[in-house]
Amino acid sequence: MNYGIAIFPSKKVQDEANSYRKRYDPHYALIPPHITMKEAFEADENEIETKIIPELRKIANETAPFSFGVYKVSSFSPVTNTIYLKVEPSDEIFELNDKLHSETLPGEKDFAFVPHITIAQKLSDEEFSDVFGSLSMLKFDLQDDVDRFQLLYQLENGAWSVYETFRLGGE
Amino acid sequence: MNYGIAIFPSKKVQDEANSYRKRYDPHYALIPPHITMKEAFEADENEIETKIIPELRKIANETAPFSFGVYKVSSFSPVTNTIYLKVEPSDEIFELNDKLHSETLPGEKDFAFVPHITIAQKLSDEEFSDVFGSLSMLKFDLQDDVDRFQLLYQLENGAWSVYETFRLGGE
Q1: pLDDT tens for chain B, residues 1 to 171
Q2: Chain A residue with minimum CA distance to B12
Q3: Which candidate, A25, B56, B118, B130, has a CA 20 to 30 Å from the CA of A108?
Q4: Could you say which DSSP state residue A136 is in?
Q5: How far is CA B61 from the centre of its chain?
Q6: Do the beta carbons of residue A70 and residue A86 sit within 8 Å?
Q7: Among A164, A168, A171, which would you mutate to test the B interface (most chain B Cβ atoms within 10 Å of its Cβ)?
């Protein structure tokens, strides 16, 4: 089964992201707006229950809640035509990302972590120029608090279903 | 904000339900296949954190994990044209539903609880006859285990985002 780990921002930020995603992101219907903390990885149910979930609980307990800001749009161009709300980096989110990629957990970290909320992807080059041209002019002033992350699994239709919540800073 | 409480069945059952939902359920993109345990209710974030989540934790701790079977399709016709996978009733799921509708939690229980996984809704009368005519011939033999329920909130686009997981039988 495919698993992944994400942070879902508050309703306010999700609603803002969805106002763009509904037009520009073909994954709009597969998962709510999110910050990917760990890309899809393969695991079986036994491994998830006996090894991965206990480790994620430990990581969550050791991690204090933190905040982030969203002020502008950025893109992964020319690598991909993905456009995203840039999550203003904080030490905490990088530390959490590091912990989620320790050797005790499956899954590789293929590239440097850029915390972001995708709002457009799989655009043609022409669409990308148009859309990024207008979105990159926007200014945002969103502040959000993170006090949890979620373990999800992927259904056959590509959609993601939340399996478990991990509260930061313990219960 | 609108909140609701649902049980998400295993991937196996969700995939089966989605094979029908993608054709017949306009809510396909808004939430993965689920058993509604408490209909949408209004609450503010403070009430959720200080009153409702502690109560849900208590309920989850007091409730043992249970199993259910899915053997056939049924419908709410003539009240609505909703078609669903019938969740073979067990005492446990009714007890959990009762606890989730105690006076300590907001939200009313408007009608008798019929545990189900919706696979078709908002069909015209003619579509309903056709679709229910063929689906009601199907036989299923699905067994599933429930060891958690989830608190969700609703986004402006109507989609549901999971806020927190509650494991049955405590940690």
Answers
A1: 999 999 999 999 999 999 999 999 999 999 999 999 999 999 999 999 999 999 999 999 999 999 999 999 999 999 999 999 999 988 999 999 999 999 889 888 777 899 999 999 999 999 999 999 999 999 999 999 999 999 999 999 999 999 999 999 954
A2: A155
A3: A25
A4: T
A5: 20
A6: yes
A7: A164
What is the per-residue pLDDT for A104?
86
Please state the φ and ψ torsions of residue A104, each to the nearest 5 degrees. -75, -10
Find, among B1, B26, B18, B49, the residue nearest to B121 by Cα.
B26
Contact residues, chain B, for A49 at CB < 8 Å? none
Distance from CA of B12 to the nearest CA of A (A): 9
- Specify the CATH number of the domain A2-154: 3.90.1140.10
Position A110 pLDDT exceeds 90: no
What percent of chain B has pLDDT above 70? Answer: 99
pTM of the model: 0.92
Q: Where are the domains of chain B?
A: 2-154
Is residue B66 within 8 angstroms of chain A, CB to CB?
no
Token pair in block for residue A9: 């921002």
- Which pLDDT score, from 0 to 100, does residue B170 have? 52
Contacts of B56 in chain A (CB under 8 A): none
Q: In what order do the strands lie in the sheet with B160-167?
A: B142-146, B66-75, B83-87, B116-120, B35-42, B2-7, B148-154, B160-167
The pLDDT value given to residue B142: 96
Q: Do the chains contact at A163 and B161, CB–CB below 8 Å?
A: no
Predicted local confidence at residue A170, as pLDDT: 52
Q: What is the pLDDT of residue A103?
A: 87
